[in-house]
User: Fold Gas vesicle protein from Salipaludibacillus aurantiacus.
Amino acid sequence: MQTETLENRDVSLLDILDAVLDKGVVLQGDITISIAGIDLVYLDLRILLSSVETLMEAREKPSVDELERQMDKSERRVL
Assistant:
């Protein structure tokens, strides 16, 4: 993994946005609106921010669940 020091480097909003879209980011949060201790509205928020290219690359990679299923199948063949 390459490490870069940002001491004397100007970082613009465009640089940050480019890095976020290149790798992707997931934001998750909860909002509860209540009055007198009674919850009136509960929002479960999940946001995925990524470029289409990054999502397509991630789609091509096998998921953890898929890898576990493949390992289970190979173990059954051995037995």
The mean pLDDT is 79. The radius of gyration is 21 Å. DSSP finds three helices and two strands in the chain. Helices lie at 13-23, 52-60, 64-78.
